[in-house]
Amino acid sequence: MRAWTTAGTAYALTPIHARDTDRLAEIVLRLQRIPAIAHTRAQVLLSELVNRSG
User: What is the pTM of this model?
Assistant: First the structure.
């Protein structure tokens, strides 16, 4: 697992790789049951726009 703190409205960001939207929903529901997590928001990446690595 990787996570980052942010300077925006979110406190932290972590990528989740799910095989499909049903699995993503299961993961989000599990996260929402953790008392220390007050709010979740999911965004789905459709395609890579730019890759300037290396």
Answer: 0.70
